[in-house]
């Protein structure tokens, strides 16, 4: 599988920085990838997802604390620690991944198309991944993830492609393809993707596939693969029996070398222990002297701090007493001012009341005088209006008579002008008709003259043409 370049990190429950790696676990019940999502909503929630090796995708929403940092650089790691609980789980999706090795495509382009058919689409330009899978109740659902930057998107893409790979579980009691139980006679194997050939070890299966791939296609059908496998097993058993003769010598030499190496390491360890003990004793003596000097220095500093604190306390007490005396004096001044105001305010209210009463009486007298003056002024204005109305009506009557007289004069002049204009128009129309009739007669006479001239020209041309034809006949005749 293509997970050699992924870093394994056995941690859980913290915020993930954008530059953290993909968690690569082999077994299907362990985390394959986890990380935060971009917050697309307008509410304060932290979105987080977990992707397991078996294709289970879990989506969490955690409420942010009030003092959480908002905004800033997306590349900066965040240090707010939150704990994932089942209460924060908002959804579970089971990706449509295969667990059977026969369904694995053989080419990379076939694998990419197969991933798209099973509901996984990548958008590198927008840093988005579209997922399609099934909920726990069997409903088909689709989700969209958006990465914070390009580095995070690349790691997510690797993790989701790895989640769609088939799972080969180690040390299983049965074959992952044919599902047959392993027994003493039916040895452990994994079926090939091409046929049902079974081998005893995973490395031997890969070696045989390489050998058969190098053979010619025509010869591949004539080789007995079972005999070839048996020959390989016999060769390995013979090699193992020949190696037993040198096994004792190798074990004896290895035991002696290991004993010498252990003795040498023990001597070095004893020497190192003695050196460390001497160094520890010297350090203990040094620390005792340092502790004594530190104790004397601390006692002196405590005495100085005590004296300084007492002096500061006396100064602050004197300052507080002075402020209290000043505050008492100010309180006495305020009390005297209040007593004075109690005596002065009623007298001031009474004086203001008398003054306001006098002003109100004077205002009423002036108001009455103004009312009488306005009544007399209105009578004068009404008399002026009536006189002006009488003069205006007389002027209107005089103007009306003048306008009616002028109108009758204009009407008689207009009638005389209209009759004169009508007679002139009739004379002009008769003259125009006479001129048009004479022009039409002249035009007809000219047309007839032109027609006679055209007929004469045509007749002359016909006579000329006949003359030419007669001349040509005379010239071309054989008797000439």
Automatic annotation (TrEMBL):
Domain PH intervals: 30-165
Family per similarity comment: Belongs to the SF-assemblin family.
GO CC terms, sorted: microtubule
Domain annotation EF-hand: ranges: 203-238
Broad class of the protein's primary localization: cytoplasm
Record localization: Cytoplasm, Cytoskeleton
Coiled coil: 259-344
GO molecular function: calcium ion binding; structural constituent of cytoskeleton
The protein, known as: EF-hand domain-containing protein
A Pfam family hit: SF-assemblin
InterPro entries: EF_hand_dom, PH_domain, SF_assemblin/giardin_b
Alphabetical keyword list: Coiled coil, Cytoplasm, Cytoskeleton, Microtubule
Naturally occurring in which organism (per UniProt): Pythium insidiosum
